[in-house]
Amino acid sequence: MTRPGRVREEPSGAGRLRDGPLGQEPDAAERRQIALIRRFGTVGVLLLAVGSLGAGASPVINPVLGIPVLNLLPRIPTVALACSFTGMGIVVLAWLGLGRFAHPGRAHPVPLAQLYRTMATWSLPLAVGPPLFSQDVYSYLAQCKVVALGLDPYRLGPALALGVGDPLVRSIPNIWRATPSPYGPLFLSVCRAVPGIVGDHVVVGVLLQRVLELAGIALILWALPKLARRFGAPPATALWLGGLNPLVLWHLVAGVHNDALMIGLMLAGLSIGVRRLPRVPPGGAVPPFRPAEAVDLALGAVVITLGALVKIAALPALGFLGVIVARRLGGRVRHLALAGAALAAVSGGVITAISLGSGLGFGWLHTLGVGSTVRSWQAPMTAIGALAAGLGNLLDLGNHTNTTITVARALGAVGSLLVGARILWASFRWRLRPMAGLGVFLAVVVLLGAAVQDWYYLWALIPLATERIGPRLRTAAVLASVVLALMAMPTGTTFNGRVFVLPNAYVAAALAVAAIVFAVRRPIPVLPFWLVRTPD
């Protein structure tokens, strides 16, 4: 219980929370246009799904090769890849077109039911097709089999534990075959059931693994509107930007990344934790802390920690939940310390219980950096280290690539901690609101990290979607989503080094998309939504 008192006055507008733009639902003409956009996007998703049969991240033993007619696609990779690129372009354009109806301040925003229906329609073809954009799902299956056999996945890589001839190991990229698992004990404990159900059947195993990730996506779609209402963003905008985003379709639905489960648990925990906290107006009295609020906060901390036991990137959300609690208690430093200690105790208890209860122990804490094995060209700190090594070679100082990259990555890790602490403090002082702070913090973690993948940007983008961000930041988020979505490679590789395949496929897809856009320019305008002047 806390003594009633006064909270510090927050910046103008910080206490005004709204459900989104007020107004009626779209009229009949707008509803027809929304339906056309959904069908337009569905055509793109179907093209991508068909192309995935020949241009997807298929296993080494591709089952499509044994199916008449469909086995033509793997034999004509340029056509399959052009089909995939065409579908990707159409989906991105459809998403932009739909954004015109989810823009903040619009008098007639698209109903959430329409967005959920669109998400279901666009996800289904990708959910039943081959993996796309990444081969990580095969690593998941192999690591889960290692656990199912009673071996330690944090000491043994799949190749050493199962043998290089194992059907699951054969589909893992060579660089990951010998590495231990970087994933938390919750994820491996849940998915250890998959090999027990399907054995070494790769296709059914991928589908079951996808069910887990779809559960995470369902949590994201459930939590986004709730958090948006709480933190001031229009729910339709949040669901469109954070849920219907092409990167979500590409990497969480089609790519089967366990980031879906991690992000879903993180958002669900935040939503549960704040659902009954009162909204104290600026300068208003702090009401007594109720037991129901404490239960919600404890449950929210538990759920967020479960997300961190899938991938550790969910853990910073606990810090920002602590900021929200501290401001609820009165906004003093002692309140921040109290909230942090309480949430840390809950989280520590959950981590200990699951680590020991799963039988996997705390070995996962020693393998969190496995992803840095790959020198990702997208990681700025790795690029800086490589550039420094190149300059050293030019100056005849010797080849010190490993050293310079290690130093650059270490500086990035220290920088992430320092900047993260600064962002957390700014959120506590309400110079940066909590969900925006969480999004910016995770963006810093990604940019200064040792390894960067396209889907890592979703860690930051999805929380940011729940805040009422300005038009410039929203436009930057949309542009980044479009660029990353169009740059993604459906195979998850460089297409086996056949360099002639890519330019031919890109040219064919560009011509096809241009022809399709010209044909539908009147019924489905594809004017980017950020060029449409609407009040913010």
From TrEMBL:
<feature type="transmembrane region" description="Helical">
    <location>
        <begin position="40"/>
        <end position="61"/>
    </location>
</feature>
<dbReference type="Pfam" id="PF26314">
    <property type="entry name" value="MptA_B_family"/>
</dbReference>
<comment type="similarity">
    <text>Belongs to the MptA/B family.</text>
</comment>
<keyword id="KW-1133">Transmembrane helix</keyword>
<feature type="transmembrane region" description="Helical">
    <location>
        <begin position="440"/>
        <end position="461"/>
    </location>
</feature>
<feature type="compositionally biased region" description="Basic and acidic residues">
    <location>
        <begin position="1"/>
        <end position="19"/>
    </location>
</feature>
<feature type="transmembrane region" description="Helical">
    <location>
        <begin position="76"/>
        <end position="98"/>
    </location>
</feature>
<feature type="region of interest" description="Disordered">
    <location>
        <begin position="1"/>
        <end position="25"/>
    </location>
</feature>
<feature type="transmembrane region" description="Helical">
    <location>
        <begin position="297"/>
        <end position="324"/>
    </location>
</feature>
<feature type="transmembrane region" description="Helical">
    <location>
        <begin position="473"/>
        <end position="493"/>
    </location>
</feature>
<feature type="transmembrane region" description="Helical">
    <location>
        <begin position="236"/>
        <end position="253"/>
    </location>
</feature>
<feature type="transmembrane region" description="Helical">
    <location>
        <begin position="336"/>
        <end position="365"/>
    </location>
</feature>
<keyword id="KW-0808">Transferase</keyword>
<feature type="transmembrane region" description="Helical">
    <location>
        <begin position="407"/>
        <end position="428"/>
    </location>
</feature>
<dbReference type="GO" id="GO:0016757">
    <property type="term" value="F:glycosyltransferase activity"/>
</dbReference>
<keyword id="KW-0472">Membrane</keyword>
<feature type="transmembrane region" description="Helical">
    <location>
        <begin position="499"/>
        <end position="520"/>
    </location>
</feature>
<dbReference type="GO" id="GO:0016020">
    <property type="term" value="C:membrane"/>
</dbReference>
<dbReference type="InterPro" id="IPR049829">
    <property type="entry name" value="MptA/B-like"/>
</dbReference>
<protein>
    <submittedName>
        <fullName>Membrane protein</fullName>
    </submittedName>
</protein>
<keyword id="KW-0812">Transmembrane</keyword>
<keyword id="KW-0328">Glycosyltransferase</keyword>
